[in-house]
Description:
Blueprint: E1 7-11, H1 16-32, E2 35-41, H2 55-69, E3 74-78, H3 82-93, E4 97-101, H4 107-112, E5 114-115, H5 116-123, E6 128-131, E7 140-144, H6 149-165, E8 169-175, H7 181-192, H8 197-203, E9 206-211, H9 214-225, E10 226-232, H10 237-242, H11 246-253, E11 258-262, H12 267-275, E12 283-284
Parallel strand pairs: 1-2, 1-4, 2-3, 4-6, 5-12, 7-8, 7-10, 8-9, 10-11
Antiparallel strand pairs: 6-11
Helix pairs in contact: 3-5, 6-8, 9-11
Amino acid sequence: MIFPPQTILVPSDLSPSSQDAGEHARELARRFGARLEVVYAAARAPWLARRRLSRAERLRMTVLLRERFGEAALLRIVESDPVDAILEAARTRRPDLVVMGTHSHSVFDHLLNSSVSEAVLRLSPRPVLVAHRPPRPVRAVLAPVNLTDYSETGLLYAAKVAAALGKPLRALLVCGAGDSVDRLSRRLAASLETLPAGVLQAAHASVEVRQGQPTDEIIEAGFEAGLVVLVAHRRSLLHDVVLGTTAERVLRHSEAPVIAVPGPQPEAAQARIAAGRESAFHFHF
């Protein structure tokens, strides 16, 4: 997984949240000279008769997208479910980063539906940056870790992000009240030492161990830092539907943008990635 990105995929429905995501994508593209690829999915309500977009509708969408993303961006307007369209583009175009916005939902809403951003985060084979707000200054890059093998993937990616942005890396471990903070601090420092020497030096890394509820502590520390990088690790299907993973809960409530790095996926999820769709849920923006 590459950072800085050379290609950035931006799903857009021309909503305010996708406008915020577009600002993040354009800022990254300007900073690192990356190419923007924009996908607009013209989805229809499933109970309505489907029809193809007219030439005038396509022209109107093209004009609006060009105004937002510029003449150099590659535009794709597809007639598809948004989740299917984004995952298909992530699988076939292989961007270095997907940048998208999200809407918050109540707990009851989330039990019934998953947002497009959470569905993409759950199944994307590429890193996904999700933003709730327009870009703000980044003071540090927060990397929540739990000393598992899969969290080291996120730690390495976070170190690359910090080095590229010229910001310090803060590795955070959240533990329970009965755990030894000193012992876990030593283990976390040892994990940092496994990073490539050049990346570790450029990232100016530090370690921090907090006691508390992981989601709350990550969100608070992420607000202080300005950017969170973590692994989108999938658990059981039932756990995801009822509670969501830590990554999804942080994504839902974080004021800071979150980059979710793909973690290990069960075979069933891998099959859905290959097919470019997730049929177990109904998704909406």
